[in-house]
TrEMBL record:
InterPro entries: Aminotrans_3, Aminotrans_3_PPA_site, Class-III_PLP-dep_AT, PyrdxlP-dep_Trfase, PyrdxlP-dep_Trfase_major, PyrdxlP-dep_Trfase_small. This is 4-aminobutyrate aminotransferase. GO terms for molecular function: identical protein binding; pyridoxal phosphate binding; transaminase activity. SUPFAM superfamilies: PLP-dependent transferases. The keyword Transferase applies. The keyword Plastid does not apply. Belongs to the class-III pyridoxal-phosphate-dependent aminotransferase family. Its cofactor is pyridoxal 5'-phosphate. Keywords: Aminotransferase, Pyridoxal phosphate, Transferase.
Length: 436
């Protein structure tokens, strides 16, 4: 315990305070759906590193692949030559893409870098500049992606000036557009919210002409904006608008990709073809790796020399990615997501339906194992953070999301029925105790 305290205090003193942190404990190890802290405290982990270790911590096959690759080639460098795991990963990814036109890849390290790569490609290919994003979106922390992020001001506050030419429209989700719900001034008794497609069309007429607009970036399920799936029919209409105006549709699946929503990519729920798809997080179960994919015709509008990066598509990360792709098939991961999602969602819906508990709940939503509960704004302050603290006391890690009072649940996609039952028990108990 003394060693744990000393390490924790050292971290608090010497690590940048700008990194927001759920806990100042020190993680020693992770295995499956659990992490163990220095000092021995063990937690059921419903964060898996913010939706990264989708196959659980230290998945044996992924660890084995990493170990083997470390002894073969650590760093090849993409501007020198191809490397085997990189090409093998592409071979595994192609059949899993949401559309057969998506067959040409560029890998990078982080989600933010991949979003930046998509912006560069969209501008280069269309010879246009403006970018439209969704309100509530999160695209990263680099200058470009910070300028595109619309989920919380903390990500951009104090860092101005941001990149120009970024416009935003409301994300289509009724539970969050009712003004009365979230405004302290209930100035209108009528629900005056405007159809989000109309708002997009107005933006293209008033602020960013189609002839200046390169791309629309969308997370099919808002991540840091509250685990909000796009309303039915919306993405199809956006696709039509993009086709009409020669604007590219870019889906940011950094958080929603690789099985998180119950399909390999969330966009499959709506059966819409993106021009560029952005991936990261779950792709390599914790090794740094991200990428973009498009048609060959689109990707190759960028000539040799325009793309690259010292560590981009690192060989060890790609080897981990190959092991992830194999495990997905062998372990029938998507079937488990469906079953465990039902379990968790069932518990949340049950609480929502109860009069005493339900009156504090504004919404239960999400897809697959990307689920959230939003509490009603109350006088007692944030219910979510109190539930989060209670869960931690009881041995379970969960995260909040968005500017609203929302808890999100991102367990490992291969979480066992027993661990999910335990997670549901802790969560239900914590919610009951907090709102009682
Ligand atoms: N896009 C989305 C949808 C994300 O959720 C994130 C990370 N939370 C990013 C981009 C940025 O990824 P990274 O932190 O790896 O740069």
């Amino acid at each position: 315990a003394a060693a744990a305290t000393r390490l924790s205090q050292f971290g608090v003193r010497h690590v940048a305070k700008g990194i927001g942190r759920l806990s100042s404990e020190v993680i020693e190890s992770g295995s499956g759906s659990h992490v163990t802290m220095v000092g021995g405290k063990r937690y059921l982990d419903f964060t898996v590193g913010i939706g990264v270790a989708n196959l659980g911590h230290c998945h044996p096959a992924v660890t084995k692949a990493i170990q083997a690759q470390v002894g073969t080639l650590v760093h090849g460098q993409v501007n020198i030559a191809f490397q085997k795991p990189y090409l093998e990963l592409i071979e595994h990814l192609i059949p899993n893409m949401p559309h057969p036109s998506l067959d040409t890849f560029f890998f990078w390290n982080s989600g933010s870098e991949a979003v930046e790569a998509a912006v560069k490609l969209a501008r280069h290919a269309t010879k246009k500049q403006n970018i439209i994003v969704m309100q509530g979106s999160y695209h990263g922390r680099t200058f470009g992606t910070m300028s595109m992020t619309r989920s919380k001001t903390v990500y951009s506050q104090g860092f101005n000036p941001l990149l120009p030419g970024i416009f935003s429209v409301p994300f289509p989700y009724c539970a969050q557009c009712s003004i009365a719900q979230h405004s302290s001034q209930n100035y209108s008794s009528s629900n005056c919210c405007m159809d989000p497609i109309t708002q997009l069309e107005l933006l293209l007429k008033r602020e960013s002409a189609p002839s200046d607009t390169a791309a629309i970036f969308i997370e099919p399920v808002l991540g840091e904006g509250g685990y909000v799936p796009a309303a039915e029919g919306y993405l199809k209409r956006v696709r039509e608008i993009c086709d009409k105006h020669n604007i590219l549709l870019v889906t940011d699946e950094v958080q929603s990709g690789f099985g998180r929503t119950g399909k390999m990519f969330a966009i499959e729920h709506w059966n819409v073809r993106p021009d560029i798809l952005i991936m990261a997080k779950g792709i390599a179960n914790g090794m740094p790796l991200s990428g973009i994919v498009s048609s060959r015709e689109l990707m190759d509008t960028q000539p040799p020399g325009t793309m690259g990066g010292t560590y981009a598509g690192n060989a060890v990360s790609c080897a981990a990615g190959v092991a992830v792709a194999k495990a997905f098939k062998e372990e029938k991961i998507l079937e488990n997501v469906a079953a465990r999602s039902k379990q968790l969602r069932g518990m949340l819906d049950k609480l929502w339906a109860e009069q005493e508990i339900g009156k504090h709940i504004h919404d239960v939503r999400g897809l697959g194992l990307m689920l959230a509960v939003e509490f009603k704004p109350g006088t007692a302050g944030s219910i979510g953070s109190k539930v989060q603290a209670k869960c931690k006391e009881k041995g379970m890690l969960i995260l909040t999301t968005s500017i609203y009072d929302t808890l999100r649940f991102i367990p490992a996609l291969n979480i066992t029925e027993t661990d999910m039952t335990e997670g549901c028990r802790i969560l239900e108990e914590s919610i009951r105790e907090v709102v009682a």
